[in-house]
Amino acid sequence: MDVVIDTNVFVSAFYSSNGTPSIILSLLYAKKIRLCFNEHLLAEYEDVLYREKFGFNKYDLDIFFNFIENNGKYVFAFPQDILFIDESDKKFYDVLRSDENISFLITGNKKHFPKENNIVSPSEFLEYLVI
Questions:
Q1: Residue 117, SS3?
Q2: pTM, full prediction
Q3: How many CB atoms lie within 10 A of CB 79?
């Protein structure tokens, strides 16, 4: 299953190994889901996750980025004609809408995105997998 994952989900996953975001990261590593990205998403992931204020283990992050580049799916994103509350979130939506095979956009900030059935929180995503 192809998905787009907002940076905030990865921050939560690396911050705590106990929680829904960490389960999503585990699903990614187990290749149960495949991360779809483009250069803008990858740049944001790197910019945010390598910030010193988080103190994430650089080795773990290097493994994560290596995994993404070798197992993820690069998507040529086409800008969508829609206004966003936070324009920095639009790049995730652009990737979602640029590939019809992407099932979900998983985010901790649903209020920043249009109300669409395939834009879900981490817990909603896991509920979908159980059904």
A1: coil
A2: 0.95
A3: 11
